[in-house]
Amino acid sequence: MKTLIKLFSFLFLLNAYAQQSLTYQQPSDEILELADVELAPGVQIDSKGENMVLLYRNQYKSIEELSETELRLAGLRINPVTNIGSRTNYYTNLKVKKIKDKDAKQVQGLPENARLSGFRWSPDESMIACLNTTSKGVEVWVLNIAEGKVTKLTDANVNANMGSTINWFKDNNHLLVKILPSDRKELINTATAVPTGPTVSVSDGAKAQNRTYQDLLKTPNDEFNFEQLARSEIKKVSINGNISHFLEADMYRGINFSPDGKYVMVTKIKRPFSYIVTYTRFPSESIMYEANGNKVSTVNEVPLDEVRPKGFMSTRMGKRNMNWRADKPSTLVWAEALDNGDPAVEAEYRDAVYQLNAPFNGKAKEILKTKQRFSGIQWGDDNNAIAYDYWWNTRNLKTYLFNPSTGNAKIISDRSYQDRYSDPGNFVSSKNELGRYTLDINGDKLYLMGDGYSKEGQFPFIDEYNIKSGKTKRLYQSTYTDKLETLNTAIDMKKGEILVRIESQKEYPNYYIRNINKDNDLTAITAFENPFKSLEEIDKRVVSYKRDDGLDLEGTLYLPLDYKEGEKYPMILWAYPREYKDKASASQSTANPNEFVYPYWGSPIYWVTKGYVVLDDAAFPIVGEGSEEPNDSFRTQLVANGKAAIDAVDNLGYIDRNKVAVGGHSYGAFMTANLLSHSNLFAAGIARSGAYNRTLTPFGFQSEERSYWEAPEIYYNMSPFMHADKMKTPLLLIHGVADNNSGTYPLQSERYFNALKGLGAPVRLVMLPKESHGYRAKESIMHMLWEQDQWLEKHVKNKKKEEKKIENKKPKVKGK
């Protein structure tokens, strides 16, 4: 008998600790009905609001697609067989329609098993060029909008590994295309190649405090492969298929025509490469050519960018953000740091903006200085432009109205970019005679379109801004209280025509033309149907509540489809922490109850079909005002947020607070593990693709810019791995084996699981093959939903009554 008991004990332990081999599973029918649906198409509309292209795609990739050959080099993920990003989203079908027509017509001549991407409108918007990926490589095709027909322009020899693959000439008849070089060498199989020596990295004493990037170069073999994949010849391709030489093979990164089409700026990567930063910080050279291919001059040279001063607002010295001035035929514009790129340096102005006219051999003219780090310009005309700067540490955003001719500038908005209530909106742009988007200027008037968040709700608006007086006048404000109207783009401000999207909880989003000059007349231009029929009767609302310290919070609450008044249900709380520098911004309401209920792949909403209350996107602000940083009290605020959310829904009488699960993805997974470690609020947790040991990201993470050596106690206190001994609550860990996100290495979940398992915590680790930070394959996503469903049924809905009950009001906070 004793022998038999020992055998059973051994088998139990073996089952508890051994790996489990599973085939991909499917979730229950209720979830599958929502997760496996045909999506409405994407929409592209020309700038005149005359023609629309509908782009259809599969909701998911297949695991077979994700299993295609992939090389991960210098921050890129490339399929070396097809020579395009291995994680590219593809469209499978196209339709076109006149805006005023009721029905769309099928595009003719599409390739068999089309995998379309990289859509680029021609300058006159009569055509769209795109890429088609075959099993052998990438081709260029062009769609004639009026004819509704596509034509193939090249063979499957296009190099789409580095972007800027297709670029239109001004004549609408030719494109510049990156083509695989004729002298490309065979790639090295790094898994089988015999090393010729060790890999050696050297520091010369300069501080290089970079984020923990993934997919970096690691060996000379990687360098060789990266160079081969980056090299292209640039060819001139006509829309009738004729191909001519333009530039010899090199590692071309960017191709950018001037607004008048007379010049093209080509940026290429140079050696030496780096093993600690991605390809965007490798040395580069920008060279100006005439449209016929004749070289004009080198306009920028950028050295290897490995070493920067500490802080999120640091930048490199030299010319950066180089681009064309959109309101001029051929004028280059760029910014340069005035503070050595060091945020610790005191400076009246941080950046200066310069311009240089063609033929780019004169002296650059300074046209603007910004008090904070320059972030962009909306061009208008000789006298008017809008510039922006920002400072992350204070969350401050400044908007300048300036005169590019004189350099005179005034700040017209100075606010926290986290303060949504004070957001004045975005200045409206329209296409100018050069085919570039510039400020829509009507005499002394500009226009602003805003999201319209307020204490009373969300009411998007259009304002008229007077350049001389600086005053605004409201032209339109949405009045819907049972729907959400999104102002997409201005088609013609003089006529008052605006492209809008309207939706409600049960109404799938559709597009309309609203005319604010004609009694706000509304004309429907799409009629997409709701693919989520089973959720049409869902009870959705935004609930507001307070944290113990008085901070206003909110979340979007969904009741079970089978809800019966008076009954208590299990609940899933899903959230993502966000850092703020002031309580006022953290308290603002940005949830809209009228948004369409859209259960995307990572959503918890599916479980309303399984008898759960769902509190989605629950507010989890982490506030640090003044000299205090948000993370100084991260754990305390995290637990306070969780307690406030549960209390709020419990007070409404909907839930059994002994049966509440918490979940999140990425930083939300990090949140979940911390909540389970430092409170007794939850019955179980789901943590997807998270980081759990912050010492593995020692030079900052999320919104923490202090290094581990500056604030070791922060890194220790915030790391669930360091407190694995406190974990007693069942935790489901899910992670993609090919995660490419900075800091969320698959190792994070593997090591955390090993720690929890070694300490006897109830935990399950699911590693999804081929998946990155966000999951893509249908097989993976269906299995993930199955895993989550099984976990919730076992540890939440059917939690044993004799398990220790959760405290009603005060969580037990463990540790510091």
Structure description:
With 816 residues, the protein is α+β, with helices and mostly antiparallel strands. Helix content is 14%, strand content 34%. It is built from ten helices and 49 strands. It has an eight-stranded mixed beta sheet with strand order 40-41-44-42-46-47-48-49, with helices on both faces. Strands 1-2-6-7 form a four-stranded antiparallel beta sheet, with no helix packed on it. A four-stranded antiparallel beta sheet has the order 8-9-10-11, with no helix packed on it. A hairpin with a 5-residue loop joins strand 1 and strand 2. Helix 6 crosses helix 7. The chain is globular. Mean pLDDT is 93; it is low at 1-17 and 804-810.
Residue stretches low in confidence (pLDDT < 50, at least 5 long) are 1-17, 804-810
Indicate the percent of residues in helices: 10-25%
Summed up, the helix count is 10
Largest sheet: 8 strands, mixed
Terminal CA distance reads: 48 Å
**Number of beta strands:** 49
- Tertiary shape: globular
Q: Return the structural class.
A: alpha+beta
Radius of gyration over all CA atoms, rounded: 28 Å
What is the average of the pLDDT values? 93
- Strand coverage percent: 25-35%
* Order of strands in the sheet with most strands: 40-41-44-42-46-47-48-49
